[in-house]
Each structure stands twice: as C-alpha cells, then as structure tokens.
Amino acid sequence: MNNFGEKVSFIWSVADLIRDTFKRGKYQDVILPFTVLRRLDCVLEPTKEQVLETHAQYKDKLDNLDPVLCRKAGFAFYNSSRYDFGKLLDDPKNLAANLKLYINSFSANMREVLEKFDFPNTINKLDEANLLYLVMEKFKKIDLHPDKVSNLEMGYIFEELIRKFNEALDENPGEHFTPREVIHLMVSLLLSQDKSSLSQDYITRTVYDPCCGSGGMLTIAKDRILDLNPNATVFLFGQEVNPETFAVCKSDLYMKSIDGKDAENIQFGSTLSNDKHSHKTFDYLLANPPYGKDWKRDEIAVKSEAAKTGSRFSAGTPRISDGQLLFLQHMLCRMKEPKGVAVWRSL
C-alpha cells in the first residue's frame, strides 16, 4: 500500500467483516479505535523490549515508574504488557481477555484517552460474534508506524474515515472535521500579517481551538509557525466534546511530541457549558464551530452566564438552533490583549 487511497480503502474494508453484526452507523465503533490502537502498537514496537526489561527491573523498586518507562519508550506514554498485535493473535482462545489486558497496560494518560472509545463493549461484541480475531488480523496487516505513514498522512486518513462515518450516519461531515486544504488557507490568513513578529528570536506562541475535533487546525497552525521560525516555541490548547474525535486528537498529539505537553492541553467536554481553559488567553484562535447545531444541552449554563455583566455571552445569545455565535463570543473572550500586533483574525 503505497498511497493514501489504498490505506483508507484497506482500513475501511474492515466494514465487510462486521456489516452483519454492526449497523452501518456503528462502523466507527470498531474501525476508529482499532486504527488508533494499531498506530500506537506500531509506534511503540521499536522500544517494546527495552520498556519490558526496564519494567521488570524497577517494578519493585520505584513507586512511580512513569518517568523511566516513558524515557525508554521515547514518548510521554508507554505500554508495559508483553503483548502486541502479533502476540495477541498467537493466542486466539484468550484474545478478548488479553486484548483488554493490553489496553489496560498503557500508561494512565493514554489509558484515559482509549477509554473514550468504550473498548470493552466493542471487544465483547466482536468476540461474541467470532469477529475479534478477524478484525485484529486485518489491522495487523497494515503498518501505521510514522516511518511508513507520516503524521500528515495519518491526519488525512482519520479525516477520510470520519467523512465516511458521517456519510453512513447521513450527517454533514463538516460537523466533525475541516478539510486540510481549508485549514491551510485559514492558517495562512491568520499568520499573513505577523511574519515579521514571528521571525523574532525566542518567541513563544499559543494556539487555541475550542472545538478542536481531531486536531487538524492546531497541528497545521503549529507546523506553519515552525516553518516560519524553527526556533519558536508553540503550545497548543483545545477542547472537544465528541469522545471519539477527542481520543483521536489527544492520542495523535501524544505521538507527535516527546514531552506530551500539547496532548495534556487538550480537554474533554463542552466548551460552552464547561470551559476547561477559563483562566487562559491565547495568541492565535481558530475554529470551525459546529454550524447549524443546537445548543440545548448547554442552554441552562449559557443563559446563566449570559445574565452576568462582562461574561463570555453577555452580548446576548443566538437562536437555540445554532450555537456558532456563542463560540465566536467565547473566542473573543479568550484573546490575548494585542501589543501593537493583531493576533486574531476571522474568515
């Protein structure tokens, strides 16, 4: 599989295995989490033995193994199980139990991410239908290591899968992701007047997306700033309400940095009713708010806040059927005060 389309088609072909057990609208319950898990498995494979040896050496000597195991893994997460996709398939009779053990053996930060996929229920359903081995075997055949599939290409793969899931659900794909071409245009407009300030030595910039989905806007913005100034320090922040896309975003960011700080700055929940970055302001803000989507679930919290002078929503609330302008008001409140340079623009 040498191109993007072949990889997407291969992963999507898992649907042929599960179509009699899972409704079309539920394909993502299997395909998305197993794609993420296979990516993690490939990423950790080169350092697997070193991590296991270090775990055996220090498990009875250190109260907190995380720092030493993360160093051995080369990332801000690790897996201390002896299993990988290959070893799991070597024991078909105990595959379900061993797979759950494997998932539970990730470090706490990655385990928290994977929990958003509701893996136990999916594993049980696949196992009961005698499909678990077939699905695992299928994913074992694709190498998703970053040396084979770059972070950029992986982002395209996730977005194409999400587009297909939304088609299956008869939903607008724009609700869950924005095409990379559109993001590149947005980022170019966002940074177009700041090239001089971004070229300065020792600059630090923060980028924020209050409905960050799978994280495409954040990562492209960071990459573009670093293209302009490789010595810049860029911190990403975001929040996402959809558990699956939150998990994709956060796991992806854990794999993109050794320290994992960007991933730790991605929060789960509704930005409108439970802003997890309420005491922060940011240099750059960009988003594709969920257009045409009602904000009924946030209505009580939003109207309560709107009644307070100087709050995020004190300018007023839009019709209940579309919350875009609430996100715009929220972003205006999270802007840093400009120091002679306009640091926020909108399309």
Quick overview:
The protein contains 18 helices and four strands. With 347 residues, it is mainly alpha-helical.
Give the key terms.
mainly alpha; Rossmann fold; 2 domains; four-stranded parallel β-sheet; disordered C terminus
The largest beta-sheet arranges its strands as 3-2-1-4
| Count of alpha/pi helices | 18
Number of domains: 2
Gross morphology: globular
Protein described:
The chain is mostly helical and 347 residues long. It has 2 domains: 4-168; 173-333, Rossmann fold (3-Layer(aba) Sandwich), CATH 3.40.50.150. The protein is built from 18 helices and 4 strands. It has helices spanning 4-12, 14-18, 28-44, 48-58, 66-73, 85-89, 95-104, 108-114, 119-128, 132-140, 151-168, 180-191, 195-198, 216-228, 243-256, 261-264, 299-306, 324-333; strands at residues 204-209, 233-240, 266-268, 284-285. Strands 3-2-1-4 form a 4-stranded parallel sheet. The two termini are 38 Å apart. Mean pLDDT is 91; it is low at 340-347.
